[in-house]
Batch of 3 targets.
Target 1
Amino acid sequence: MNLEEFLPPALDLLAIRSTADRPADLHRALDLVLDLVGPGFTVERFDSGGKPSALLHAGERRPFRVLLNAHLDVVPGADAQFTPRREGDRLYARGAQDMKLSALVLARVFRELGRDLPIALQLVTDEEVGGYHGTGHQLDRGVTADFVVIGEHSALRVVHESRGMVTARLHATGLAAHSAYPWLGDNALLKVTRAVDAVVRRYPVPAEEAWRTTVNVARIGTANEALNQVPADAEAWLDVRFPAGDTDFDGRSPEQVAAHLAAVSGVEVEVARVEPPHRADPANPDVVALQEAARAQGFSGELLRKHGAADSRFYYGRGIDAVIFGVGGDGQHGPDEHADLTTVVPYHRALTGFLSRL
């Protein structure tokens, strides 16, 4: 693959403001990539929650040997970020690193190999807002595979594990009273503070990066507005991140997690979401082969763990090994997001080498 020939369609894709609130641009981004792949493939289109997606393959749908997954949506950015600019080996734009360049490489590799190999290309447009209407929706409709490569940025390293997420609220009820007579009341803020302390003692904040369950206390508040009143209600917001294998959270329903946190905290708990973690077996021959393909291009191919969530969690929940493997760059979701152009051609070669071994 020639980088200079690859860049013009990449610039066109990066210029599309494909954020969740712009459905027409989500369709434009999807259609651009479908046009790049070209004719000769079966294209299954999906639409869920106003978010379009597509599955491309040769012939009838079946359990694919390898599924290539890419999302074409981006988070909001400044106007200037949708006018891509190149500075040496860096390409600056919203979505350059996360993950439009990787998506185009996956599309190109599929175009070159998809007619001869049992692979498929999955294009979605809602990863940045949860993935339920893209990857999640397609899997609910029976799409499956033996192994999945997700083109999120990794600088040709192999992300085999990421943490799950719980969003919860602790609720405490007390008794209002005049603040001059606190013994006549029951301070709900003190209750919820003690509850938060109990949760943080169970899951302490690490002093440095650690692969274990962590809790972020995002907010503590009350409806009380009077300085001279004992608060009768209070709540705290918690963001819990947990690795695969943590039996307090992994594989648990929202009701089970709420009961667990209530037992720890001693107050009422409401759990809004439980998102599963993701883990692929490092000994899986496909994981090993992908590492070898990266090393053949002069990269380490080392295994990585990511603390954030990705669409890989949908596959983990169905017993399918999925890894994240993409181009390099920096500044994800920030004002200086950029892709490292020196990784684009090696990424194409590594994917081609990996898939050719099938």
Target 2
Amino acid sequence: MPLSPLEHDRRYGELDQVMRAYAGLRADDTPDRPSEALVAYLRHTWHSRPWALATAEMQLREYADHPPGRLRLRLGEFYAIPDVGLAEGDVRQWLYCLADHIKRSVEEGEVPKPATPATHWEWHARFPELGQFLGGWFSQDMPDEFDDHDAAVADYRNSSDPQVVVRLVGELRELLALDLDETDYALAIAELGMEVDPPAPYSPSGWLSLVAEQLTVSHPGSRES
């Protein structure tokens, strides 16, 4: 029978996070060099959930030690490793390689320095609510759903829990604190799901600053101090 959500997370939850970090990227790790995807996973996890690294190392190694057969995969009783561009016979060795890199990082204290996100997964892992906001309210359908950008921002603010709105404001300010150039801000908001241009005459960073200001307006459901 298929795995329950609890059993899935208990046995494969952090393994799944590692695999998600490879979406759209090459699994070109070697024993001497981790891939861009793994470096991004290590960087974000070290600075947000360092305790999860030991779980990732254990789950990777256990999966490689006991790979599921085709029947159990078909029945949904095991986590299915996504296609990462490797031959089926090479996947186990690759998983051991990832586990070894994570183990070395923890045991030797090799912590990647804070940096601008480098992969699609890392952008969304670091700015999850901003990804929800941009992808949900500023998709290509935005012009059909709202009169303008301001109306979309107001709809998000009025339909979201005040604590979630505050979280988004914090992520906006963190993104602005990276002090990127405008081309990189344009790439960042595209990575995070925005499919329309910022309104004229704003640059990407200028519009993000405006949104942060708009979201600090008292929420209808919030308490006045």
Target 3
Amino acid sequence: MTTDNRTKPSVRQLRLIVEVEDYEAAVRFYRDVLGLTEQAAFEGDGDARVTILDAGRATLELSNPAQIRMVDAVEADGKRSAKMRIAFEVDDSATATKDLVAGGASLIAEPRETPWKSLNSRLTGPEGLQVTLFQELEDIQTRSTRPGFKHP
């Protein structure tokens, strides 16, 4: 084992920045329909606008191509996902999916239980951003006892 005396950067937040042509529609969809809380909004010269929405805890999920193919098969009947998609944990996937479709999302796949014990749906939101909604059906400790799962 090597020791590194350098100080590692302290990451405090993961922020996903999405350029949207229809700014009002995107803000309405993610803030008003999905329910993300507006943290800040700024306006600048030349009609420059940004809204920062609080999405709770952030994680970065790194998956190899085999994992993506497996998830696509389970979650979306094999329909290939985008290179990047955004996933939101919700309390009720079925209701949230209906709300997002009513709010303008295109449904890719209805909510379905996955082998990793979550209820997942897949949609396309404003500007073509793929969205996965997931509802955890068991806690991480229980899930980590299943074959193939690890939890530090």
